[in-house]
Design brief:
Length: 687
């Protein structure tokens, strides 16, 4: 008789060895970068004493105190991943050539990764919004007034509004990325993702504080540079097995982009740090030591990037399958980048040696302007007083440098490029610097008449000079053409210049309405006063005036390729109508009795309404008179182009007549002879 024990002993079960699924070391280290970055965020805040200084009206509690920097770190990491994958898909990775416009396998894969990262980014943005509202107000979620207070923060406070705009752009970018099948859609998603970073710069500096404009602009440049640099490297590392034969080429393209991003991060980092540190001795304080640590990491990453460009990328181009060395370097770089991002979040939550709080009392004027109140305006001071806007100066310098590079390259190649175009472009860049950093910008915030000079410079003086430079045509002749299904700068330029969107904008009535009609909307609505009080509205004003002016003058005197232009009589009609409307606007200002943006002038201490109205009348005269000279010159240019067009047509017809023996003229004469003979037959019969 068998017992249960003996039965169990007789049964034999196959032995299976349990094994954990194999995980890539690269994936493991990348996952560990997230807690590493979080740890350095908390360490940086502890080191700087951020946890000891409360920013809210009341204690928000440990959940907000520790949860907000953690959520912000995840937010920034997800932002880098989203932007990086979209930039790689839009500009770097090879695609397919069988169906033009459709995203290839690697581009679609990168876009799907971006959609997943964007989902995390959006979720983190929502958490940051809620926790920021609690941090600012001190109202806990269980409080009866929590939701009304949160609504007030999100839609009435500048910080909350910037977070809402950013989250909206993140959501749009994520949805487009999830649905994108064409490269154009991927590019649009990339644009929304990058734009979502810009409002976040407002969270790092309070409006009404000293040098608010430079602080916000430099921080915006810093955020874009970091996300493109870090995210692009992450995307290429994760896609090392997806991108096959063109991996070396993709890394070469990224290397160029990373070099530009590194320069932007370094430049903006220096500007931003100088605004938060009062002296070199502040570098020895906890906040300054954290900046030194970030700068050290930046220098090491720059050295590593240079090493990759010199050694690693050339090897990959020769043997695209040998990617181990690149993976090691990239992984090491990403670890240091994660540490730097953690320190950056910690710094953003720490109080710098130089206060970033709004100025009040006797310093209110400087707080509103962002710089010391200038001396009384004179003609000489309009050209000698400067307050440098570093990002606009950098933009003008880069535009001038790139144009010079293209000019030299095309000349060395043996092709012709008129020198006058170079002179016009450089002059336009100089005017752009003056209207954004010179007397026009400084006194434009102090007097309406000076503001109108800045306005005319942005719309009437800089744009025609830049248009005559022909930058798009130069870029198309200098930049290389891609044949692997990807889109570089040249391909995106060609797509945009021949798009339906630009074809609509370049219709003379549309360009004229954007150019002249926006004056009424801007000055006779709250937009003008908002542009004086709010930095983001001021930047939007400058960009709108500059782009609308460029678009308008391109329609009339542009040499760049684009949609076909209408007949010259139509151009003259639209030009005269725009000139008349601009004159009407100037006269309306000269005869106005109400003071525009009166709250701003009174906030500056200018309470003499009679003087303010007289200055506004002077501004109207400037708007009228300053538009006459550029418009007359443009009219002469259009007339000259019309004449040259007729001459070219005549020469073309003469050459054709020489080839076919005036076949068209002979056919026309024969036709007239037939008609004459046909008319003569009835008269002969009657006779």
């Amino acid at each position: 008789m068998t017992t249960p024990a003996s039965v169990d002993s007789d049964l034999q079960f196959p032995e299976h060895e349990f094994r954990f699924p194999r995980v890539s070391p690269v994936a493991t280290i990348l996952v560990l970068c997230v807690p590493l970055s979080l740890a350095f965020t908390l360490l940086a805040m502890t080191f700087s004493g951020a946890f000891l200084t409360g920013r809210a009206l009341s204690d928000p509690g440990d959940v907000v105190t520790y949860g907000l920097p953690i959520a912000r770190t995840i937010h920034d990491l997800a932002a880098a991943a989203t932007v990086g994958f979209l930039v790689v898909a839009s500009f770097i990775t090879p695609g397919q050539t069988k169906q033009p416009g459709q995203a290839g396998w690697s581009q679609s894969r990168a876009t799907r990764w971006a959609a997943w990262a964007g989902s995390v980014w959006f979720a983190a943005a929502i958490v940051v919004m809620v926790l920021s509202g609690i941090d600012i107000s001190g109202v806990a979620p269980g409080d009866p007034v929590f939701f009304p207070t949160l609504g007030t923060f999100l839609f009435s406070v500048e910080l909350g509004e910037s977070l809402v705009v950013s989250a909206t752009c993140i959501l749009v970018a994520t949805i487009i990325a999830a649905l994108a099948r064409r490269l154009t859609s991927v590019g649009v998603s990339c644009g929304f993702a990058i734009f979502a970073l810009l409002p976040l710069a407002l969270a790092g500096h309070a409006a009404g504080s000293f040098e608010h404009a430079n602080a916000v602009n430099s921080l915006a440049l810093h955020l874009v540079g970091v996300t493109v640099w870090v995210g692009g490297l992450l995307a290429l590392l994760l896609m090392r097995k997806t991108i096959k034969g063109g991996y070396g080429t993709a890394l070469g393209r990224y290397s160029v982009l990373a070099a530009w991003a590194f320069a932007g991060v370094a430049f903006s980092g220096v500007i931003n740090s100088s605004l938060r540190l009062g002296s070199f001795s502040d570098l020895l304080q906890p906040y300054g030591l954290l900046i030194v640590a970030k700068a050290t990491i930046l220098i090491l990453l720059g050295i590593a990037g240079a090493f990759q460009r010199r050694l690693v990328i050339p090897r990959l181009r020769k043997d695209p399958t040998n990617r181990r060395l690149f993976a090691r370097f990239a992984l090491t770089e990403l670890v240091f980048m994660a540490i730097a991002i953690g320190i950056s979040v910690g710094l953003s939550r720490s109080a710098p040696p130089v206060s970033q709080q709004p100025l009040t009392g006797d310093d209110l004027q400087e707080g509103l302007l962002g710089f010391p109140y200038p001396p009384p305006v004179t003609f000489i001071r309009m050209f000698t007083v400067f307050h440098v806007d570093w990002v606009w100066l950098l933009l003008a310098g880069v535009l001038a440098g790139l144009y010079l590079w293209g000019f030299i390259r095309i000349r060395r190649r043996g092709d012709k490029w008129p020198v006058y175009r170079l002179i016009c472009w450089l002059a336009g860049c100089v005017v752009l610097v003056w209207v954004t950093s010179g007397g026009a910008a400084v006194y434009g915030l102090v007097h309406f008449s000076s503001h109108m000079i800045q306005h005319m410079g942005l719309m009437m003086f800089a744009p025609p000079l830049l248009v005559l430079g022909g930058p798009v045509l130069l870029a198309l002749r200098v930049l290389p053409t891609r044949h692997d299904g990807s889109r570089g700068v040249r391909e995106w330029l060609l797509l945009f210049t021949h798009s339906r969107f630009l074809r609509f904008l370049t219709r003379p009535p549309v360009a004229g309405v954007l150019f002249a009609g926006s004056l009424i909307i801007f000055y006779y609505s709250p937009a003008f006063q908002s542009a004086l009080f709010s930095h983001e509205w001021h930047v939007a004003m400058c960009i709108h005036f500059l782009l609308s002016g460029y678009l308008f003058f391109w329609v009339f005197i542009g040499i760049d390729p684009g949609p076909p232009r209408p007949a010259y009589p139509i151009l003259f009609i639209v030009l005269l109508a725009t000139l008349a409307f601009h004159a009407f606007f100037g006269v309306a200002l000269m005869e106005s009795q109400g003071i525009l943006a009166i709250d701003w002038w009174h906030a500056l201490g200018q309470t003499n309404n009679t003087a303010l109205l007289a200055d506004q009348h002077v501004g109207g005269g400037i708007a009228w008179g300053a538009s006459e000279i550029p418009m007359v010159l443009v009219a002469l240019g259009v007339a000259y182009q019309w004449t040259k067009s007729d001459e070219r047509t005549a020469k073309r017809l003469d050459r054709q007549a020489d080839r076919d023996g005036d076949a068209d003229l002979n056919a026309y004469n024969d036709r007239l002879r037939e008609l004459s003979e046909r008319d003569a037959e009835p008269h002969d019969r009657l006779g």
